[in-house]
Design a protein that fits this description.
With about 140 residues, the chain is mainly alpha-helical. The protein is about 70% helix and about 0% strand.
Length: about 140
Amino acid sequence: MNFRDYLTLARALPNGATEAEWRSDSSRAYYAAFHVARSLLLGLGFRVPQADRARGYLWLRLSNASHADTAKAGSSLGLLRRERNRADYDERRTITHATAVQNVQEAEEIIRALDAAAIDPIRTQITDAMKICDRDVLKDVNWHP
């Protein structure tokens, strides 16, 4: 499966007329960005944990990538996850059409930044920075050649 297809679906859902569609949109937008981030780090040679541990792992590595756009993408991914959680679990909070559209736009920006990060020289820059963060700050080396 190409998880970028979630973004295609997310782009279509804000055109829906129900809050259920707008909630689904927020969820699909997040997961599209999440899987692009996961794929990027796997492609850089990092071992991304499974399940719920992957979220924090991705956010932390991207946020410490020593590249402004990549770090912003990491931070935005964390915020988009919060929106996804609200959409999926908080029945008291209304999700509007405008919120759904904003969440899709945020996912698109994250994915654009991560796509740019996959190309050198940014690719090498962020890989080196994440390896240093792993070694010196986290004391948990997850990169493998």
